[in-house]
Amino acid sequence: MENLIPLIIQLVSGAAGGNVAGALMKKLSLGTMGNSLVGILGGGIGGGLMNMLGMSAGSGGMDIGSIVGSVASGGVGGGVLLAVIGAVKKMMGK
């Protein structure tokens, strides 16, 4: 169970990051549901990349550093993936 908590935090913060990015970049927004889904995917990918790079975003502990790392990697990952997918969608629409 301890290993799932950082993942859940990353996914939830990814959804939040995707929605924040969608609100800030109206032209790249995919709607609330689309922003949330892409953000969740981006949060999982962002957390996984952080772990692979040895930055231990979700080391499995419940200390404040692990929680902050999980939130940061999830939120940034969600926002970045939304920006990429939104830009690709916009380019395909032209």
SSE topology:
Elements: H1 4-24, H2 31-52, H3 64-93
Helix pairs in contact: 1-2, 1-3, 2-3
Q: Can you give me a brief rundown of this structure?
A:
This protein is an all-alpha fold. The protein is built from three helices and no strands.
How many runs of DSSP E, i.e. beta strands?
A: 0
SS-based class = mainly alpha
Q: For the CA atoms, what is the radius of gyration?
A: 13 Å
The main sheet comes to:
none
What average pLDDT do the residues reach?
Answer: 87
Oligomer: single chain
Q: Number of DSSP helices? A: 3
The 3D shape can be described as elongated
> Which H/E pattern describes the elements?
HHH
Classify the helix fraction into a percent range.
over 70%
Distance between the termini: 46 Å
User: How large a portion of the residues is in β-strands, by DSSP E?
Assistant: under 5%
- Low-confidence runs: none
Describe the structure.
Helices cover 78% and strands 0% of the residues. The chain has 94 residues and is an all-alpha fold. It has a domain at 34-51 and 64-84. The longest helix has 30 residues, at 64-93. The radius of gyration is 13 Å and the shape is elongated.
